[in-house]
Amino acid sequence: VRQLENAVERMVILSGDGTIGVQDLPPELRDASTSLAASPLDPVLPPGGIDLAATLEHIENSLVMQALDRTGWNKNRAAKLLKMNRTTLVERLKKRGITGPSAASSKAPER
């Protein structure tokens, strides 16, 4: 915050007309502002457009898999992380043919 405050004060002093913009920021602050501008929660529509349905499905699948991995495939806890009903989660998994890790791969190696 202090760095930004100092930069703004310097820009105001150096600007001839009192108007400042992103281009007037020092490079280290300018780079930080551009990386924040396109955050996942504020996506930018590409000039050629996108397949919205496919994009949303990809995002949903990614978040569902992260929740399942984080909870060790406990569907009840994963559903809570996703703020959805367990039955809704199970239905979506079935619809997409997503199954949990196989029982054979989750067993401890036999000796």
Blueprint of the fold:
Layout: H1 2-14, H2 27-37, H3 52-70, H4 75-81, H5 86-96, H6 103-106
Helix pairs in contact: 3-4, 4-5
Question: Can you walk through the features of this model?
Answer:
With 111 residues, this protein is an all-alpha fold. The protein folds into 2 domains: 2-37, no CATH class; 52-99, Orthogonal Bundle (Arc Repressor Mutant, subunit A), CATH 1.10.10. The protein has 6 helices and no strands. The protein has helices at 2-14, 27-37, 52-70, 75-81, 86-96, 103-106. 5% of the residues are buried. Residues 107-111 have low confidence and may be disordered.
Short précis:
By secondary structure, this protein is mostly helical.
Terminal Cα separation, in Å? 59 Å
Specify the oligomeric state: single chain
> What is the averaged pLDDT score?
80
Radius of gyration, whole Å = 24 Å
- What is the string of helix and strand elements? HHHHHH
**Unreliable parts:** 107-111
Indicate the CATH architecture of the largest domain: Orthogonal Bundle
Give me the number of helical elements. Answer: 6
For this entry, give a set of tags.
111 residues; 2 domains; single chain; mainly alpha; 59% helix
